[in-house]
Write a structure and sequence with these properties.
The protein has 105 residues and is mostly helical. It has one domain (2-99). The protein is built from 4 helices and no strands. Helix 2 packs across helix 4 (81-95). The longest helix has 24 residues, at 49-72. The protein starts with a helix and ends in a 10-residue tail after the last helix.
C-alpha cells in the first residue's frame, strides 16, 4: 500500500496527476484489498513478514494489467472482475500454499 501512496505523492509533486491516473490508482487499490482478503483467508504467512505485502502488491499490479488487456480486447467482461480476481488470487496463493496456515480454498 505504501507503493501506491508513494506513486500518488510523486505524481502530485510533478504536477502530472490527472483524473485517468487517479482512476488507475483507485483500481489498483481495489485489487490490492481484494487479493489481500484472500491471502488473509488462507492465513498466508511467509517467513519474512514483509513478503506478504510485496507479494500482494506485485500480484495486484500483475492482475490489473492482465484484466484490462483482456477487457480491452473483449475477451473478458468488466462485470466479471470480482470472480476473476478471486480465481487469480487463489491461483497465486496456490503457488505459495506451503506458507498458508489455513488452506480452505
Amino acid at each position: 500500500m505504501n507503493a501506491a501512496r508513494t506513486t500518488t505523492t510523486a505524481l502530485k509533486a510533478r504536477g502530472t496527476f490527472d483524473a485517468a491516473q487517479m482512476q488507475q490508482l483507485h483500481g489498483l487499490h481495489e485489487s490490492i484489498v481484494e487479493i489481500c482478503q484472500h491471502a488473509m483467508l488462507v492465513q498466508y504467512h511467509p517467513a519474512d513478514s514483509r513478503q506478504f505485502h510485496v507479494d500482494v502488491i506485485a500480484w495486484a499490479i500483475e492482475w490489473e494489467a492482465l484484466f484490462w488487456v483482456n477487457v480491452d480486447s473483449d475477451t473478458w467482461h468488466e462485470d466479471e472482475w470480482i470472480e476473476r480476481t478471486e480465481d487469480f488470487a487463489l491461483a497465486k496463493l496456490a503457488d505459495v500454499r506451503h506458507d498458508c496456515l489455513s488452506w480452505k480454498a
